[in-house]
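Throughout our pipeline, every protein is held as a single compact record rather than as scattered files. Such a record has a labelled line for the sequence and another for the backbone structure tokens. This encoding replaces a full spatial description with a residue-level series of whole-number codes. For reference, a complete record is included directly beneath this paragraph.
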Amino acid sequence: MIMAGADVPTGNCETPVSLLDLSATIADHFGVPLDGADGIRPLPELAATPYDPERAVFSEYHGTGSVSGG
């Protein structure tokens, strides 16, 4: 995932992230609490913490012609 902006430092974050973290990022930006947000964190918060190779994220593929999620 690529993130850029005025207050975003340059560099790489190797910790796995998901689109759910993006929803936490948007809510955090507007100062709105996100109910049921256990396990997801705003992207700037993740980027500012040490590498966490054990962080689990869910991924599913639904491509053209796919009969089920993979």
Q: What stands out?
A: The mean pLDDT is 86. The two ends are 20 Å apart (CA to CA).
